[in-house]
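Researcher: Sit down with what I've pasted below and flag anything odd:
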Amino acid sequence: MSFLPNSIIIRPSMPKLDNYLQSVDFQDKNFIGTVTFKSEEIALPDGSKIALGIDDGHWVLVYQKGSGASFKVYRYNQLENRIHVDQRPGGEKDMGEFKSHVNYFLRNAQVEDLVTLIPVR
């Protein structure tokens, strides 16, 4: 039998965001909100930071590769399947980056590290 030193705490892994979003309909016209980190000190495992806003099929992803890096803003219109990056029309490469960033965020963000901002109606 082995014993762990008192300084080591084992706790169950924190749930990932994608576990909570399994039943969300992202085309729901009533869903409006932004999911982001609750603190500037928190980042994804690769050091990037992301905020994701969804409003009636319009997605806005603010991406920062690392602390101190400039922000990149993706605006995706799901109904028209069009993307803009930093206010310029985007192409297939931009769409691939956007989807990759969203998937990485959903798979790696810890629920306890996030806040959801919902506008007042």
